[in-house]
Automatic annotation (TrEMBL), chain A:
Membrane topology: Multi-pass membrane protein
Protein known as: Multicomponent Na+:H+ antiporter subunit D
Species of provenance: Breznakibacter xylanolyticus
Coiled-coil segments: none
Keywords carried by this UniProt record: Cell membrane, Membrane, Transmembrane, Transmembrane helix
Residue ranges occupied by any NADH:quinone oxidoreductase/Mrp antiporter transmembrane domain in the UniProt entry: 123-416
Flavoprotein among keywords: no
Main location: membrane
Spans traversing the lipid bilayer: 6-23, 35-54, 74-94, 106-123, 129-147, 159-179, 205-225, 237-255, 267-286, 298-315, 321-345, 366-385, 405-425, 446-469
UniProt record similarity statement: Belongs to the CPA3 antiporters (TC 2.A.63) subunit D family.
Cellular location(s): Cell membrane; Membrane
TrEMBL record, chain B:
GO cellular component: plasma membrane
Domain of life: Bacteria
Cross-referenced PANTHER family: ANTIPORTER SUBUNIT MNHC2-RELATED
Assigned protein family: Belongs to the CPA3 antiporters (TC 2.A.63) subunit C family.
Organism: Breznakibacter xylanolyticus
Annotated protein name in UniProt: Multicomponent Na+:H+ antiporter subunit C
Pfam families with a match to the protein in the record: Oxidored_q2 (PF00420)
Keyword Transmembrane helix in annotation: yes
Main location as per UniProt: membrane
Membrane-spanning parts: 6-21, 28-49, 74-93
Amino acid sequence: MILSGFIILPLLYIVVSFFPLGLRARQWGAVAMTVMNLLLAVGLIAHIASTGMVKSEMGSWQAPYGIVMVADRLSALLLLITALLGTALSVYAIQSMDTERQEKGFYQFFAGILMGVNGSFIAGDLFNLYVWFEVMLMSSFILMSHGGGKVQLGGSIKYLILNLISSFFFVAGIGLLYGQTGTLNLAHLSRIIAEAAVLPSSFNAPLVLIAIAFAIKGALFPFFFWLPASYHTPPPAVTALFAGLLTKVGIYSLIRFHTLILRYDDAIWNDVMLWIGGLSMVIGVFTATSQYDFRKILSFHIISQVGYVVLALGFSTRAAMAGAIFFLGHNMIAKTGVFLVAGWVKKRKGTLDLRRLGELFSRNKWWSVMFLIPAFSLAGIPPLSGFVGKYAIIKSGIDAHHTTAALIALFVGVFTLFSMLKIWIEVFWKPMPTAIEPAIKGGEGLMLTGAALLALATIGMGVAGAPILDYCTEAANDLFNPNGYVEFVLGRGGV
Amino acid sequence: MELSIAIFIGILYACGVFLLLRRSIVKVILGVFVLSNATNLIIFLAGGVERGGIGFVNENGEPAAAMSDPLPQALVLTAIVIGLGIAAYILVLKYQYFKVTGTHDLDQLKNTEQK
């Protein structure tokens, strides 16, 4: 039952906030909703740390015939981090978003994204995953174009069309897979494919289609073009929300799909993951170095950092998987953290062009710290969370004799540090080139609270690295034992 | 029956991709609609098409002589509804874009592109 809460809570908020309540009630209602979501996620993770998995069958129809929601350790961790980001962002948005957008439905669609992301993390079958993707995408389409001028609408059109194409890939793959197996339940699919000794070649088409769909959603090379073309256009709070959650859902789906289904075909898929991951890392980080816009640099870094996770997926060892899970969680927090600082700079100075900014350190010590912590965490400086994640991935890569790939990962880390230092020097350190008046006046205490929450989370994840990595290792063990998942969902008997 | 639907899906995909590659935003959007329907037909075809086959059992609980798999029909229904919502939204977005910029040309989108 606890799993339905993750859907019902945001849905309830959306319904209630259509009543004429006034802006203040809506804002603090959103904060209350996200805090409740956070408590629910903490409850779930405490429960799952002891029991391992939770499932919930809708209407008591048993899997694989009914709709089933499943959460294992991976889902629970990602749900917790999503809830944390939701809390930080709902607090941050109160002062960051302009009043007009807030009055015209920002919080409803914010809750819609939260609902879609939560649903994707606990979906137990492919078609439900598709439906949750659409819930998330519809809200994101609207937030992307919400109240926008020319640039924002242009970005929205590209974002929308490329994401729709990825949905078509996904649905076509689902159709072909259903035609051959007669089921869409992930556990049931996994059992059917495991029992087929040799995978017939007719399975290649749906598997490739679905993998491509996830790669587009996850902004992996060579499908990432929609991301840097659109992420710098909406208001900063929206970009922060997207950067933290949307691509990561694609990567989560890829992990789930890889460990349950593609693993039975791993002669090709591991190499594919290695290449896609490696190229995403390198190309993302290189293109970022040539950018001169705060948010564009960070957008290209999203591509680079999801590459790390996919690379670790390609190593295909338990240690690498644990590192990938840790890194995914770290990246969601730290990436959103730096985007929150970008939002503050935009509000204060009205621009995010690095060439026109400067000297923010001398007057805004707290915000500089809020930038430094997640930025260094992304670059992988100890004792922050990025170090633990990168260390785990690179070490497992060397242990698995993928030394070249591990060295590339190290090399990419240097360039990440370069980009972060570039932002630091240009925005916070160098003298102000021209005087710019503040764009919007108003308080920023709540914005700082949101950013501080995430900065503390990234420090906490780094300091408590060992126990969290242990948890991730257990999660990886679950993923590497798909029979456990299958038996938990379907029961021990044959279906 | 299945072969003719499969060929039809192929033609729809070809038309959709052709429209997607046009410069006019309206044509691109029409391409998206065509692709969306072609994809829905794939799911429909996946369950196997039976002439006169019904997707439910009769009042005595026995399956009919010609029975179709009801699940793909339910899935298609969901996909069509989602497609309809997206179609409505994308048309409004296009309208708004036209009001702001006064152009249908995709090349005008360049100014949001990364340099």
